[in-house]
UniProtKB/TrEMBL annotation:
Organism of provenance: Undibacterium hunanense
Keyword Transferase belongs to the record: no
InterPro entries per the UniProt record, alphabetical: ArsR-like_HTH (IPR011991), AsnC-type_HTH_dom (IPR000485), Dimeric_a/b-barrel (IPR011008), Tscrpt_reg_AsnC-like (IPR019888), Tscrpt_reg_AsnC/Lrp_C (IPR019887), WH-like_DNA-bd_sf (IPR036388), WH_DNA-bd_sf (IPR036390)
Domain HTH asnC-type stretches: 3-64
Name the record gives this protein: Lrp/AsnC family transcriptional regulator
Keyword annotations of the record: DNA-binding, Transcription, Transcription regulation
Gene3D superfamilies on file: 3.30.70.920, Winged helix-like DNA-binding domain superfamily/Winged helix DNA-binding domain
SMART domains found in the cross-reference section: HTH_ASNC (SM00344)
Signal peptide: none
Record's keyword annotation contains Ion transport: no
Length: 159
């Protein structure tokens, strides 16, 4: 899908406030409400806007531990990738999972109530998953930047 400068403005506004009314959005990007709504629907249907959500402050709801976990798998286990991918879908502690380059196969972002909860997750679920060879945990001490927003300056407008 080709994005123009107006599309980028719409995306920027929606990332800042996903609950903005169509009228307010149209005013901010200098479009009529009907034109604005049409563009937003095209961005949604084109897969540019994936979904809308509320961002929850994990610490405020009692999730004190934030960890990045590198997982290395044994390659001699049949269907190790499929089995691991299926297992991690059942773990609510895993809030992000990525296939990565380097020594490990996966990088997981894990949220837990406390170290006891995190330890139980690692020992009772992760280590017991067939094919897991090695786990390396990095506990977050302080978050400097954490956003899902994509800077529109990184995107190229076509005009």
């Amino acid at each position: 899908m080709q994005l123009d400068a107006t599309d980028l403005k719409i995306l920027q506004q929606l990332q800042a406030d996903g609950r903005i009314s169509n009228q307010d959005l149209a005013d901010k990007v200098f479009l009529s409400p009907s034109s604005c709504l049409r563009r937003v629907r095209m961005l949604e249907e084109g897969g540019i806007i994936h979904h809308y959500c509320a961002v929850i402050d994990a610490a405020a709801v009692g999730l004190e531990v934030d960890a990045f976990v590198q997982v290395t798998m044994r390659r001699d286990v049949e269907q190790w990738h499929e089995n691991f991918s299926q297992a991690l879908q059942q773990w609510p502690e895993v809030v992000g999972s990525y296939i990565i380059t380097g020594d490990a196969n996966y990088l997981l972002r894990v949220r837990a109530r406390n170290l006891k909860h995190y330890s139980a997750f690692v020992l009772e679920r992760l280590y017991k998953t067939t094919g897991v060879l090695d786990i390396r945990s990095n506990i977050v001490l302080q978050t400097l930047k954490d956003t899902q927003q994509i800077a529109t300056s990184l995107l190229v407008a076509t005009e």
